[in-house]
Amino acid sequence: MKRYVIKGNICYSRSSTQLCVAENSYVVCENGSCAGVYQTLPECYAAFPCYDYTDKLVIPGLTDLHVHAPQYPFRGLGMDLELIDWLNTHTFVEEAKYADMEYADQAYEIFADDLKNSATTRACIFATIHTQATSLLMEKLEQSGIKAYVGKVNMDRNSPAYLCEETPEQAAMDTEKWIAENSGYENIKPILTPRFIPVCSDELMQQLSNLQKKYHLPMQSHLSENLGEIEWVKKLCPDTSCYGAAYDKYGLFGNDCPTIMAHCVHSGPEEVKLMKEQNVFVAHCPESNANLSSGIAPVRTYLDLGIKTGLGSDIAAGSSLSIFKAMAMAIQCSKLRWRLTDQSLPPLKMEEAFYLATKGGGEFFGKVGSFEKGYEFDAVVIDDAIYRHPQPLSAKERLERLIYLAQDGCIVAKFAGGTKIFEREASIL
Ligand code: GUN
Ligand code: FE
Can you give the pTM of this predicted structure? Predict the structure, then answer.
């Protein structure tokens, strides 16, 4: 039954600058949607069951707009290279293992379990080129209760023989079969996933474009992450005016094709304009961008321009699945960028980082990531008592601290689309 009330200290964003904090209040879930936040519970909800989380913090579930599930086993390892060398040395070698279903079963079990136990309720996930292992990942995630898009990766050139699709036609056939077999889930949906332009031939992009038009699927990829990568794309696509245009050429860059582009660290004015005009979402992945020495994306510019932006963990270029950590790093990196690169772009404030992690990224899923009326009911309840303090803190101060301190052990309940994913005691994980 998706009718209940949660009592606690309710925190949510209305906009990137407007954080709402309702201490000792109620948030109501009715038919899986939020029916509002109330200081005093209206009579009409008095008969709803109430989860009493007095003293705890209640926030919308977090969205991870960009994560590679198969890379989870080598998170924290092999961080001394830049993007292309990192892909060839570590990433492709690991992803090739998912041809083996026994390995995929073990690795994806761990990933799905850890994601379930995190504060993330929504995610946009890359798998590998392997359709069978990708289907298994989707099955496991469906059972976890998390709501996610999952993509079978496409790549057919400039890739090692052991991780390369045979022909664009075969890739399209495999992808279409995978779409047909995985379109019936409640929580998990397929998303087209050309890895990035350097590994996708023109013919493959055309095939994916045809599938997009036929099935109206969203798409996710990478954009302008690394300077060497951008130079490579210029050589591969001499006729396109910017990297983003190489996707747009195939109708795979926003508008009727809802699109997430990870990184956008070095996007120029023309690319940024195209992203804005066509409602492309940016997945900002600050930890990944630091680890692979990619740079620091101008998130302040994206917010000022009203470009749709959220946060991504980008496992395994990012080491942590925690979107709290992504919030902290987004703030920290924006400060370094402001100090070292561009003093016209002020650093992010905590309200803005919280917005990116909730309502900003959540928007890719519709009305998701807030407790405003009519939003899908995704909620995370946090017990921060382990972070002891000699004096009482306000709910806002407690939320601010959690951006830097939160660990999965302090999450005591989690709901997605109104369905309870778990309820448990706080622990030190
Ligand atoms: N660009 C193409 N593939 C990848 C990947 O797996 N991770 C990151 N960070 N960038 C990419
Ligand atoms: Fe990535």
Answer: 0.98
